[in-house]
Amino acid sequence: MKMLRQIYILKDGNIIYEKDFGKVLSSENFQSIYQEVEAEISRGLLNDFGSSNFFKHRIIYTVDRALKLIFIFIIGFNDDMETVKLELNKLKNDFLESFGDILDNLDPSLFEIFNPLIESIHKNIKTKISLVGFSGVGKTTITKLIRNEEVPETHIPTITGKVSTIKIGKLTFHLWDFAGQEQFSYLWNDFILGSDAVLLITNSTLENVEKSKYFVELIKEQTPNAHSAAIANKQDLDGALRVEKIEEILGIKTYSMVAIEPNNRDKMVQIVADILEMNMEESTLLKPLFERDQLIQLAKKSLENGDIAESASYFDKIADLCLELGDDALYKEFYLKSEKLKRYLPDITTLQEYQNNTDLNDSDSDDDGLTDGQEVNAYFTDPNDPNSDNDGMPDGWEVNNSLNPNVDDSTNDPGGDRLTNLQEYQNDTDLNDSDSDDDELTDGQEVNDYSTDPNDSG
Q: Starting at the edge strand that comes first in sequence, how are the strands of the sheet with 69-75 ordered?
């Protein structure tokens, strides 16, 4: 399977950093692997990189002898070794640059700054998932379902094939949708080579399932190390074979599906996770997606129970997860939902005024643009401190500009104009407009390069 499964960094034989992305080796198996690695190193057989095989896994490693460090990737058999070596070397160099001088007093919490690099490395070692099956069984519809695109109402044949880069949670992979028409059968062998996982799509009719046994044999011949499963599509149609019968005929794990139903996307994502041997609740790549879906269900229940404050809080958490996943459109959608709900929250009570030591006769005790009720009941900021997160920007200004008043986001630059949020506030510019005065100079150029007024085009 072409996917980075685990990363280990060891010093003096002790694990100082570990990252898991999918189904992992047990500690006992890893100890066996480490002993082999250590033996090869001690015999002086290792040059720049070493490698060994362990069942379905390939182990590749490099060392820093002076610092007694070992860097290990656990990957699959189909990975391009040159790419893997480049990424492992990148890991080693960045680690040494960041932590090489403080290894003896290394605080594990510092590894947080390492996470963006690790995600980048994982993204660069992309998994190839192939969808195969005869024409009209729903391969392209399933591709669109996975990508969360509008599902087509009529069948349009795919000519030769289509490759899509798909992102589910933080997992990025290549999805190959092969042409199913038999006139393109001469291409199938080449297309399927190098696949890490193959999904065989059938329309659940007896004739098509029997014909699809051809693809099962093709998978075994051309990509024997790939994980494979079947999707029994069109299970809503009269005469569709039961999934159990299809699995019996094909001899591979089979999942039920109605791909034209958009609500089945979560099910399709779970199938992808299963075939890649990734636990949705544990994988660092898919866990945020799992958490987001859980929070959406909790938010729905809160709304049904009439708990506006709790619902708004859930929507805030969902928006933050969407931002973490890089889904800006969904972030904005849930942020706006939260803001809309917060308008209906009750104002501050006399008891809350006493508990928070606010002024009964002043609705905005700290003059930050948010009422005391909004701060206490909606945004959970300090009603007596105009800058609750101490980032230099008033709470009200942050809320009005879709920023989080409880997080220091002063150095972010959402407009991409080389002005930080704090500079935008200080210069009274538009956070989401890179050229506030439309003078063909970005706000960043005006403030940082030319010392001109970014709000005056004259």
A: 14-20, 6-11, 69-75, 57-64, 50-54
Q: Write the CB contacts of 304 (distance below 8 Å, at least 6 apart in sequence).
A: none
Cα torsion 172, 286, 246, 154 to 10°: value is -60
Which of 187-196 are b and which e, b meaning 16 or more Cβ less than 10 Å from the residue's Cβ?
ebeebbebbb
- Say what the pTM is: 0.54
Q: Which tokens go with 64?
A: 């820093």
Compute how many other C-beta atoms are within 10 angstroms of the C-beta atom of residue 42. Answer: 9
Boundaries of every domain in the chain: 6-124, 127-275, 287-342
71-127 per-position pLDDT tens digit: 988 887 665 677 888 888 888 998 988 888 888 888 877 887 777 787 777 777 767
CATH class of 127-275: alpha beta
Tell me how far apart the alpha carbons of residues 145 and 123 are, in angstroms, rounded to a whole number.
Answer: 22
Are 366 and 349 contacting, i.e. CB atoms less than 8 angstroms apart? Answer: no
Contact assessment for residue 9 and residue 19, using Cβ atoms and an 8 Å cutoff: no
The CATH number of the domain covering residues in 287-342: 1.25.40
C-beta neighbour count of 400 within 10 angstroms = 13
Work out the angle between the directed axes of helices 115-124 and 81-99 (0-180°, nearest 10).
Answer: 170
Run of H or E including 204: none
Considering the domain 6-124 in this protein, what is its CATH number? 3.30.450.50
Tokens of 270: 């779970």
3-state DSSP call for residue 86? helix
| Cα 10–Cα 12–Cα 13 angle in degrees, nearest 5 | 60
HSE value, Cβ hemisphere, 13 Å, CA-based, for 302 = 17
Instruction: Return the DSSP state at 344.
Output: T
Residue 57 one-letter amino acid: H
Which tokens sit at 50?
């070493």
- Read off the tokens for 267: 């099910």
Q: How many CA atoms lie within 13 A of 41 on its CB side?
A: 21
Cα-only R_g, the chain: 27
CA distance 235 to 259: 9
* 408-456 pLDDT tens trace: 999 988 778 889 999 999 999 988 888 888 888 888 898 998 889 989 8
Q: Indicate the pairing of strand 69-75 with strand 171-178.
A: unpaired
Q: How far apart are CA 389 and CA 382, in angstroms?
A: 9
Cα(223)–Cα(171) distance, rounded to whole angstroms?
Answer: 22
